[in-house]
Amino acid sequence: MHNILVLGGGFGGVTAARHLERLLGARDDVTITLVSRENYFVLTPLLFEACSGTLELRHCAQPIRPALRRARFVEATVEEVDVERRVVRATAAGGAMHEFPYDDLVVALGGTTNMSLIPGSAHALTFKSMADALVLRNHLIERFERADAAADPTDRRRCLTVVVIGGGLVGVELLGELTAFADEVLRYYPRIPRDDVRFHLYEAGPRILPELDAKLADVAVRVLRKRGAELRSGTPVRAIEPGRVLLADGPIDAGTVVLAAGIVPNGAALGIPVDHDARGRIAVEATMRSRSHPNVWALGDCAAITGPDGRPYPQLAQFATREAKQLARNVVAAIDGRAPMPFHFRSLGTMASLGGTRAVAQLMGVRLTGFPAWWFRRTYYLFQMPRWDRRLRMILDWTIALFFRPDVTRVDVAPLGSAATV
Amino acid sequence: MHNILVLGGGFGGVTAARHLERLLGARDDVTITLVSRENYFVLTPLLFEACSGTLELRHCAQPIRPALRRARFVEATVEEVDVERRVVRATAAGGAMHEFPYDDLVVALGGTTNMSLIPGSAHALTFKSMADALVLRNHLIERFERADAAADPTDRRRCLTVVVIGGGLVGVELLGELTAFADEVLRYYPRIPRDDVRFHLYEAGPRILPELDAKLADVAVRVLRKRGAELRSGTPVRAIEPGRVLLADGPIDAGTVVLAAGIVPNGAALGIPVDHDARGRIAVEATMRSRSHPNVWALGDCAAITGPDGRPYPQLAQFATREAKQLARNVVAAIDGRAPMPFHFRSLGTMASLGGTRAVAQLMGVRLTGFPAWWFRRTYYLFQMPRWDRRLRMILDWTIALFFRPDVTRVDVAPLGSAATV
Predict the structure, then answer these.
(1) Which of A208-212, A294-298, A392-396 reaches the highest mean pLDDT?
(2) What is the reported pLDDT for B406?
(3) How many whole angstroms separate alpha carbon A417 and alpha carbon A415?
(4) Which CATH superfamily hosts domain A2-37+76-112+264-335?
(5) Which of A15, A51, A275, B340 is within CB 3.0–4.6 Å of A133 for a Cys-Cys bond?
């Protein structure tokens, strides 16, 4: 019996497991096991809308179990990969330790916000998971409530200042969604003057949205500036302190600070004793096979996969999905004694949502802006959702959101106390 | 200027504020202020469905601000009521203290789960708020995941044992929803034998569902027993320990213990220095005016309002809503020098959902069971939602739920860490 073990339940891991199922059909000489920390997979590009409430939070996730057919799913957190014994140790909820032997290991553990670039990063919110989206939403609404009740104008302005650190896709899309959200809900806060609400975005690099061509990036900046946001490139943040951000030209008091300045491989991926590159990503051949351990494979944000031009592929969902399919084919080829093929994929395009039915996109050389770009982006992600029940719910959420304003309900986050960890 | 201050954002407080707005029209000699811990109001009878995921969690809540017209809303937690100076002190998020002077005070602070009946109650989950519904949902799904991964059959059975303490409406409706949910989602857990999943309900009193007539209670018990639940009346729980429940005839190991054994007034209501009854509820006349302080009024779960027969009115949403309307009329009458009227209302009926499209109901003398009762209950609560955007979302949630199975996505609850409390 040949055991394939997939670690990680994101775009990469789930697509790989599903594709392995398809390729292996009813073959009973191979087992597939997927181990992930969460029992659902998140369509991360939709988290922005989940944060503002356009989309229900749960609707940007898909439970993993119903999406699998023959693969076994186990909810557990990877603790250690023993590449000599070919065993992965993982803890399930409640602390029970499980061991998973493997013949082929697929590492798709993803990335996490880079907290080492800016001192004091722990004082900022991050934007990577469902919990992050929920916490940011609640946080922002709480700041509006606080500002509405505040007697002192300085306190109020501080509550209403939002700083986003990082001008890449995540930072800009987040800024777009938050500015649109604020414009919509401020009518419910009669005591908050619109001008007191301030949005800042700081990018250390030379320009905003390096992922897109310069003309589209300019359009994005114009749209966001019209909503009153201040975007500055070439402006590194020196440090983050509780409630403020330090720049070269002085500090900025802010009630909300979100860090979106790049990602690093997940801790569990960093700890796997195979070769890594300088940024901690698993060093793989173009076939996605580990350079040091041929029965370990890696893809997505935790792998350094270089294209024919020698440059690494971008860390985007679009690529993770394609990598996963090729990787599944390669693993099956290796089992059957055939040669694995190098990964090669040219991006179909890049899209950035700006919130409030606006987006910019470049699609196979064509530039789209405004509503058409926004509509295309939505529809594209809709079809990335594996099953129709979720797609239907997403369509309905969006339809209703066209006719009604977003709301300001906080789904309160209660710390999981002792009672829940019996 | 006459200030009316309403404390509490549940059925009672919000209905009172809305009705005061209506009665006072454009009169500019009276202000209305509503202070509540949360900026939304929850349709508590829908929390069961939110827990199983039939309804989105956020859809059983309505933001308070858009539901008010002229009243001022402040999100703050009541700390102290100074009945001499006629001032309420409350803290907003972030710790800022605010003072609200009042001429008439309406106390609608509601109730909280009674933790003093059973030793060790802190080890149980409760079911009263949105956070409770979310925590219980996540907890239950986590137990399924854990059981699916568990190697030891004893561990597995413990994970899969659910105990509900209390056989009143809340306990029975919760048991109904949870059994139906388990039946639906277990197909995704191929390694869990259905017989290992056990549901127990213990009621200290002589019978299950004392709120309904005995025939309907029997129907409810039959429906739940068919789903494999064990319901025992006359069975007080001696104590709750982490992971188990002690009964007279021995302990029961359980991965999930939910306490639904009655409510007591909220701490903030208990602390108001006016006359209270033996159970801590504010002692009021039949007009809902405090017996000791005529400019304090109270309603709902924190007030002891007795009917013409000398018995207190039940602590149900239906009553709180009617009390609020009468109370609003009485406050306006008192301001205008007219006599307030005693509250008098006969219940229109009582309904208990049993989950999985089943319910029991007695409506103006008529008994309904099964699907018709369930449909009627849903529709009734739909129209308790103040605004159409929410109603529409609820209708769509329910429609989709008819065609698809519930899912097992946990919207993960992350403790609000230091970053969020900048």
Answers:
(1) A294-298
(2) 74
(3) 6
(4) FAD/NAD(P)-binding domain (3.50.50.60)
(5) A51
Contact B260, B113 (CB under 8 A): yes
Of B402 and B227, the one with more pLDDT: B227
Model confidence at A418, pLDDT cuts 50, 70, 90, reads very low
Is the model's pLDDT at B246 over the cut of 80? Answer: yes
The string of DSSP codes covering B259-270 is E-S-EEE-HHHH
pLDDT value for B140 = 93
B298: β partners: B107
Residues paired with residue B253 on neighbouring β-strands, in sequence order: B244
The per-residue pLDDT for range A95-148, each reduced to its tens digit, is 889 999 999 999 999 999 999 999 999 999 999 988 899 889 989 999 999 999
Identify the top-confidence range among A334-348, B86-100, B323-337: B323-337
Which residues make up the CATH 3.50.50.60 domain(s) of chain A?
Answer: 2-37+76-112+264-335
CB proximity list for B290: less than 8 A, separation 6 or greater: B274, B275, B282, B283, B284, B296, B297, B298
Chain B (44-63) residues lying within 8 Å, Cβ to Cβ, of chain A:
53, 56-58, 61-63
Q: What confidence score (pLDDT) does residue B214 get?
A: 93
Interface with chain B: mutation pick from A37, A409, A410, A416, highest number of B CBs within 10 Å? A409
Spell out which residues of chain B touch residue A92, defining contact as CB-CB under 8 Å: 145-146, 149-150
Rounded to whole angstroms, how far apart are CA atoms B272 and A58? 40
Which residues in chain B have Cβ-Cβ distances shorter than 8 Å to A155?
96
Tell me the nearest-neighbour CA distance from B385 into chain A, angstroms: 14
Mean pLDDT across chain B: 91
If we measure between CA atoms, which residue out of B194, B126, B199, B136 comes closest to residue B163? B199
Window 184-243 of A, Cβ < 8 Å to B: 188-189, 242-243
Residue A17, pLDDT > 70, answer yes
Query: Where along chain B do the CATH 3.50.50.60 domains lie?
Result: 2-37+76-111+264-335
Distance CA A241, CA B268 (A): 35
Structure tokens at A176: 């777009």
What pLDDT sits at residue B179? 95
Q: Do A416 and B415 touch (CB under 8 A)?
A: yes
pLDDT at A16: 97
The type of residue at A287 is T
What chain B residue is nearest to A41 in terms of C-alpha separation?
A: B409
Phi-psi map region of A356: left, alpha, beta (phi>0 left; psi -120 to 50 alpha): left
Q: Which residue in chain B has the smallest CA separation from A122?
A: B419
How far is the C-alpha of A223 from the C-alpha of A217, rounded, in Å?
Answer: 10
- Inter-chain touch A146–B188, beta carbons under 8 Å: no
User: Average pLDDT, whole number, for chain A?
Assistant: 91
Q: How far apart are CA B290 and CA B317, in angstroms?
A: 21
Q: From the list B146, B407, B414, which residue is nearest A93 (CB)?
A: B146
pLDDT, tens digit, 9 for 90 and up, residues B42-74: 988 899 988 888 888 888 888 999 999 999 999
CATH class for the region spanning B2-37+76-111+264-335: alpha beta
Taking each helix axis as running N to C, give the angle between helix A11-24 and helix A317-335, from 0 to 180 degrees, rounded to the nearest 10: 40
**B199-217 mean pLDDT:** 95
Contact A86, A295 (CB under 8 A): yes
Q: How far is CA B146 from the centre of its chain?
A: 29
Domain B121-261+349-403 of CATH type 3.40.50.300: no
Q: How far is CA B12 from the centre of its chain?
A: 12
Total residue count of chain A as it appears in this document: 422
pLDDT digits (tens, 9 = 90+) for A297-311: 999 999 999 998 888
Contact yes or no for B393 and A411 at CB 8 A: no
**3-state secondary structure (DSSP) of residue A313:** coil
